[in-house]
Amino acid sequence: MANEAIGVIGAGAMGAGIAQTFAAAGFPVLMQDLKAEALARGRASIEASLARLVKRGKIAAEAAEATLGRIATSTDQQALADRALVVEAIVENIEIKSEVIRSLDAICGPETIFASNTSSISLTRLAAASERPERVIGMHFFNPVPVMNLVEIIRALQTSDAVCEEVTALTQAIGKTPRVSKDSYGFVVNRVLVPMINEAINCVYEGLASPEDVDEMMKLGANHPMGPLSLGDLIGLDIVLDIMETLYDGFDDPKYRPSPLLKQMVDAGYLGRKSGRGFFRYG
Ligand code: CAA
């Protein structure tokens, strides 16, 4: 890309991680969110993540400073006008995402690529909201973004070959590994991963073992870096439920039925790390 300016919409855990990753690779980033407090929290989480990398000797303090220096913030969507690529990482709601895509159509130049970090919404439906559907694509990052190597690239039915190639090259340029999936419910990773988490929740629901033991069994018996219930807490149990519902409704297959306990946890507001309590408690 001749113009390397990147826009990120949404300053939550994913948006902040994405902004950090592009900035660390040398790209100027504008992180936009409607709420100034969200931007302040996002910047603080980037600072904490960079401090962690410095402490572990992964990067120099100067590199952390330079990364932060490449991240500007704004509450104004118009500030994204000159961006070559805008990645949205906002709430998982198709109407709200489509609205953002429509307003970007009016704000950004005709060459701007719109990428969505959605974990389960159809890219083809999102692309249909744009007047430039061939320039809409999925860039699905994984949590914690600075650590996880994969970016799952999702081609909408409308995405052009050129845009797919550009985004694949860009993913490599930020030090991540791109893999392309066609647009389908849950794409590849979540279609495999999230039913596994749902099944772990069913094991607890049916009283087979405690959350601690289920997690320990999967760590020791399957070499998972963290147990499935801890992972559900990290992802957010509302997001896990959202993805299960997308798989269940989309494929119309009972094997994807969300666990009753998962639904109850979400009803109770026990969403995982972000609410301080999920299957485990967080200080
Ligand atoms: N920022 C920067 N670095 C971080 C970090 C962050 N937010 N979180 C962890 N790290 C780094 C640490 O510095 C450490 O680096 P080194 O080992 O190189 O020194 C490394 O990551 C491991 O961290 P810890 O030792 O603190 O903790 P850990 O060994 O328990 O690993 C983990 C933590 C990386 C999260 C690991 O448990 C893991 O890989 N878990 C699985 C995560 C996963 O599956 N994510 C995908 C979720 S699905 C998703 O996101 C998509 C979706 O749509 C739902």
What report would you give on this structure?
The protein has helices at 13-24, 36-55, 61-69, 94-107, 123-128, 161-173, 189-205, 211-222, 228-235, 237-251, 260-267; strands at residues 6-9, 29-32, 71-74, 85-88, 113-116, 136-140, 150-155, 177-182. The chain is built from eleven helices and eight strands. The protein is α/β, with parallel strands linked by helices and 283 residues long. The protein has an eight-stranded mixed β-sheet, sandwiched between helices. It folds into two domains: 6-182, Rossmann fold (3-Layer(aba) Sandwich); 192-275, N-(1-d-carboxylethyl)-l-norvaline Dehydrogenase, domain 2. It is 47% helix and 13% strand. It binds acetoacetyl-coenzyme A (CAA). Acetoacetyl-coenzyme A is lined by residues 49, 52-53, 56, 58, 119, 142-144, 146-148, 190, 193, 225-226, 231, 235, 239.
The SSE string, one letter per element, is: EHEHHEEHEHEEHEHHHHH
Question: How far is the N terminus from the C terminus?
Answer: 43 Å
Measured by DSSP, the beta-strand proportion falls in: 5-15%
Provide the number of structural domains.
Answer: 2
**What's the CATH C level of the largest domain?**
Alpha Beta
Using the coordinates shown, work out and report the CATH topology of the largest domain: Rossmann fold
* Low-pLDDT segments, ≥5 res: none
Q: What ions, cofactors and ligands are bound?
A: acetoacetyl-coenzyme A
Largest sheet: 8 strands, mixed
Features:
283 residues; alpha/beta; Rossmann fold; 2 domains; 8 strands; binds acetoacetyl-coenzyme A
Quick overview:
The chain is an alpha/beta fold and 283 residues long.
